[in-house]
Write a structure and sequence with these properties.
The protein has helices spanning 15-23, 43-50, 64-75, 94-104, 168-173, 186-196, 228-245, 248-253, 255-271, 275-300, 326-346, and strands at 2-8, 31-36, 55-58, 80-85, 88-90, 108-117, 120-126, 129-132, 137-139, 154-156, 163-167, 200-211, 311-312. It has 351 residues and is of the alpha/beta class. The longest helix is centred in the last third of the chain and has 26 residues, at 275-300.
Length: 351
Amino acid sequence: MVSAIVVNWNGRDYLPACLDALLAQDPAPSEVLVVDNHSDDGSRELVAQRYPGVRVVDTGRNGGPCHARNVGAALAKDDELLFVDNDVVLRPGCLRALLARLRGDPTAAMVQARSLCGDDAGVVHYDGGDLHFLGTIVLRNWYRPLAAAAPADGPVGAAIALCFLTRRDRYREVGGFDENLFILYEDNEFCWKLRLRGHTVHVAADALCTHLAGTAGLSVRGEGRYPGRRTYLHSRNRWYVLIACMRWRTFVLTMPAQLLYGVVYAGFGVRRGHFGDWLRGKWELLKMLPAAVRARRLAQRGRVVADRDLLVAAPMTLNPGLADRGFNASLRRGLDRFFAGYWRLVRRLCG
């Protein structure tokens, strides 16, 4: 039996399509919870009126999707948990395919649905990826036409948390999602904690969903404007995840590359008028260091897999239009080559 947990904040316009598709799944979830981060757009009232069988939980504050997922996991009654963002619409058969993958591999702790773009269902949006040693996720089939997408079925290095199935005991084992991250990089941290314990993360390519809009003020679609809030969260959360999840030896050995990447990203922020956002992220990171060290104790507990066997140095993922031409494209290629060479140099020494 599966408990479905829909994460919502001011998603009134998206909830009907999300819930209709979820309730139409075969098999259907045994229960559906909408965990609402204290929306002020009438979301809770809409669900109560149109979907009397759906349980609505008001968290009382906007603690971000990490908080909402943890609240939902604590209240759910089943051992298998399906997490869905409010702007995600499951295709027919999606839940069945997710269940088949999770139940077919005893090491599987997380299975992500293949996500297609809401503005063009023939294009892949999220298809899982790999954990880069810089703390980012290298996305597979990013904005690639579905017909030309490389096979993505099976284990991956990391998944995106917009639509995934997990086991309750594995979720609890790693402490769920770190609420200090609020949003952005929470997928990296959650997958890293699972994999360092020897669990596997999967994408089920036949489990399809559509990702409609993304998070307002944060998501970037295609060549859209890069938001300052994303610069702030990137500046703060990447280092938090590295401190919490990476072995100290790996952290020290990769520090030159980490600093170089940080400088380049700072320059990226300055060019877009986001220096204040970048600086604020660093200031918040300093205040969060004690929390990151506490999170580290839980993350490292039960580790059986070394960083050198978890992390990669593949070409990094950037949104279309950010570094496709001219100097930016040359810089991107040069950095990718440098980071790949640096990782080859230190990888065997990493813990």
